[in-house]
Amino acid sequence: MYSAKEAAEKTGLSTAALRYYEKEQLLPQISRTSQKYRQYSDSDIEWIKMVQCLRRANVPIQSVKKYIALLVQGGKTMEQRYGMVQDYIRNIQEQMDQLHNALALTREKSAFYEKLLKEPSSRDLTYLEEWELFKNEEGKEE
Amino acid sequence: MYSAKEAAEKTGLSTAALRYYEKEQLLPQISRTSQKYRQYSDSDIEWIKMVQCLRRANVPIQSVKKYIALLVQGGKTMEQRYGMVQDYIRNIQEQMDQLHNALALTREKSAFYEKLLKEPSSRDLTYLEEWELFKNEEGKEE
DNA sequence: ATAAACTATGAAGTGTGCTTCAAGTCAACA
DNA sequence: TGTTGACTTGAAGCACACTTCATAGTTTAT
By CB neighbour count within 10 A (0-12 exposed, 13-18 middle, 19+ buried), where does A15 fall? Predict the structure, then answer.
């Protein structure tokens, strides 16, 4: 069993965030010592890590809450949960697509700068000139 | 040249968002018709799309603003901009890692549900049982 | 035994990124 | 001519995800 502080250290969340998650019902019942202090079990920590994993994929707290509510309701909600998980997967894939595009753009920019930084003459480019040059570079790729 | 509404349609942003971006100095000077209405050029639209690309990669507005301010200052800030782009790249890669993890988790969950949904007996699982089963499944993967 | 450190609670505050509102101007059509 | 409809502005409002604060009780170390 872990204290609030230990749980925070183990998960990388603040104790305030852990309390917030609990209040928002993203966590199962966290047991208490002598009716006062929270005690996080290993299983609680695991659960929190799962929530964190979803949160890092930008799943809204309300959605996680809904998923967990269904989970607690048990087996009869399995189809619904399956549906939610499918939505998560689609959403994550879409985000990866966007990141993929942004990575391509920034890598092109990076390569562009690397090239220009080798030519001292390019130091006097105005932003309009740079923009035009960059757009031409982009065009070349395909 | 495009009106506010047309620019909004072309970019998928609202006219209010376009004005907000302009106010926050994420866009170059947008020209005006007869001292009043905005006119977006093709080049403006391109610029907006670049901003959108960065925004979709969760680059904060203040960071885009800073990058653009450097860009306008010209060639002498090229190293700084190069540095910013490197940071963007690292950040995007980190986000992709997180999404990768979340995708793995959700795909496992999905596969788990697909298996369970084939067995009518599993309909009566409590969430604790499901959780245990799922954690065991996870362990198996490696 | 008392200070330092930790925990509790509810309520209020914060930062980000827009959206919505209020109040007015401008252009075009019926 | 007047009434839509698109545009303008600044200001206020909102959703989200926490964080911080004020206040108070508990535990631990010296």
Answer: middle
Residues B10-19, mean pLDDT to the nearest whole number: 97
Q: How many CA atoms lie within 13 A of A79 on its CB side?
A: 4
Please name which of A132, A136, A133, A107 lies closest in space to residue B85, comparing C-alpha atoms. A107
Classify strands A31-33 and B31-33 as parallel, antiparallel or unpaired: unpaired
**Cβ B70 vs Cβ B77: under 8 Å:** yes
The integer distance in angstroms from the CA atom of A49 to the C1' atom of C6 is 24
**B56-110 per-position pLDDT tens digit:** 999 999 999 999 999 988 878 999 999 999 999 999 999 999 999 999 999 999 9
Question: Which nucleotide lies at the shortest CA–C1' distance from B36?
Answer: D8
Chain B, residues 58-117, CB within 8 A of chain A, namely: 59, 71-76, 78-79, 81-82, 85-86, 88-89, 92-93, 95-96, 98-103, 105-107, 109-110, 113-114, 116-117
Pairwise CB contact (< 8 Å): A127 & B85: no
A39 backbone dihedrals φ, ψ, rounded to 5°: -130, 115
In this complex, the nucleotide whose C1' atom is nearest to the CA atom of residue A18 is D18
Distance CA B131, CA B111 (A): 14
